[in-house]
Amino acid sequence: MDNNLTPEKPYVIGLDMGGTNSVFGIVDSRGTIKAQTVISTKAYPDVKDYVKAAVEALQPCLDMIGGIQNVRGMGIGAPDGNYYTGNIEHAVNLVWKGIIPIAKLFSEALGIPVRITNDANAAAMGEMAYGVARGMNNFIMITLGTGVGSGIVCDGKIVYGSDGFAGELGHVIVDYTPEARPCGCGRKGCLETYCSATGVARTARQFLQKSVKPSLLRELNPEEITSYDVFCAAEKGDEIAKEIFEFTGYTLGAACANFANFNSPEAFVFFGGLTKAGHWIMDPITRAYNENVLSLYKGKAKLLVSSLEGSEAAVLGASALGWE
Amino acid sequence: MDNNLTPEKPYVIGLDMGGTNSVFGIVDSRGTIKAQTVISTKAYPDVKDYVKAAVEALQPCLDMIGGIQNVRGMGIGAPDGNYYTGNIEHAVNLVWKGIIPIAKLFSEALGIPVRITNDANAAAMGEMAYGVARGMNNFIMITLGTGVGSGIVCDGKIVYGSDGFAGELGHVIVDYTPEARPCGCGRKGCLETYCSATGVARTARQFLQKSVKPSLLRELNPEEITSYDVFCAAEKGDEIAKEIFEFTGYTLGAACANFANFNSPEAFVFFGGLTKAGHWIMDPITRAYNENVLSLYKGKAKLLVSSLEGSEAAVLGASALGWE
Fold first, then answer.
1. pLDDT of B283 above 70
2. CA distance, residue B310 to nearest chain A CA (Å)
3. What is the pTM (predicted TM-score) of this model?
4. Neighboring chain A residues of B268 at a CB cutoff of 8 Å
5. Which residue ranges form the domains of chain B, and what is each CATH number?
6. DSSP line for B217-268
């Protein structure tokens, strides 16, 4: 039917689904986002209304690229998205509870194949296809947000494990002492309690309390301190702020040194707000990694910061699933 | 040329290379060892003499199956064997130092393709092809010997990582306190310092020293206590011996709970002398695993003991590489 030389379906849809907003992008095979639209995720208590709103919002974007017949498939990155089942399963950060057959719903609404994975895996796919991990077959993506997520790539593929839920490095226990911090998962001492944005805020409150050193952070309400406040203070030479990043980075770097024992990665790619702290966080990560990694792996893995912008990485990563 | 219906080359050679002995097996496609022979590994300071001796020792076995023309390939499981390069690289437990192109040497001597992997990966392949992990696509093999080794299987394949040296879970650091035990790798607190046979002996000496309880183990020279002695004492109701296994198993089970975060395995398969301690070691492993694993993974992974005999598993596992 189609006699010209362009591929029959040259686009995919990528969806970065967050608890608050959902960002949709129409992406070509080079990773260029040709059109983009956003809808609220939490405004639709019924997921069917959400899918309907999404399809409506996508229509003008689809018109720009000649309609849905030019779209090969759709990929979704969503919290607790399961690649094997196509479902979102018991996501704590979404309005929909239980098991949501999101891939099936979008596939029926759009008439194209739809695949889903969790947000950290989508970010890893984005880095592998279009970011700093391009060409790498073995790397570990660490996402530093409200929590700590991860996407593990072995032999060019995301590790999904027996149930689709592999790769929860934020919940590796790094502290078994009685002082270990309680984690939202119900256990204690998870990496996430130290190295997420909220972990940094906890460290800030703790360090301010146990020290008498002056600090710019003392001017703030301890309950409202953010990792950005700590960054701003560190930039102004604040000692406690520097110690907070030192502790956070060292904890993360030492944990990554342990992670290297799994898949001997070519790189760790760090992503998320905390990476904006630049050398304040990357220097202690690097030092801890080098001090703690097994000599067999020394000097082999690069410690990289994502080159993709926040939502861009997730949309591109999700869209990469659309080509499968 | 060959007009009957049997496959043209129905056998493979598997080699389980240890620091002391090398066990060769001729294996058919069902995993039956049709013939077996052993030579000393350490008796040949020159690896070329070793290969020559191996080929001579193999000759009667090969005659039994109609000669080398019936052999499809050879697989080797060896300490520090690298799947990517075909070399043994800087093995501390072998007489040959530096980089030994063992796959190339055997391939030239026998005229068949030869592949190599490390001993723990070979054991994992043996379990996957012929043992308790048959049919599993995601599992973790833990070998408990003089050291602690591991073979990680994701999506039906051994994880080799960027350099062929992935899967060193014995060197995951599980203790960051100042009391952490020094490890042969030059660092402190590695899992291996607690859960290997030598780790059990260290624990025995430590527990005997810090306690005044009577123990059958006090009759032995502390420097000569083995994990088998501890097992015999536990069987006789010795309290300290039971505490030693409790500590060892708990440490291992808690570490495995962390490992589950990587590939959400269907099973952990434990292999090696220490597993002969049966419930003394498996009960605390199971309890620690269940107490420490992320709720997402709870009840999903089986904790299994290898069903293959010591050298059999390694020979079969290595031989599985011969079919590739």
1. yes
2. 24
3. 0.93
4. none
5. 11-126+312-322 (3.30.420.40), 136-307 (3.30.420.40)
6. GGGS-GGG--HHHHHHHHHTT-HHHHHHHHHHHHHHHHHHHHHHHHH--SEE
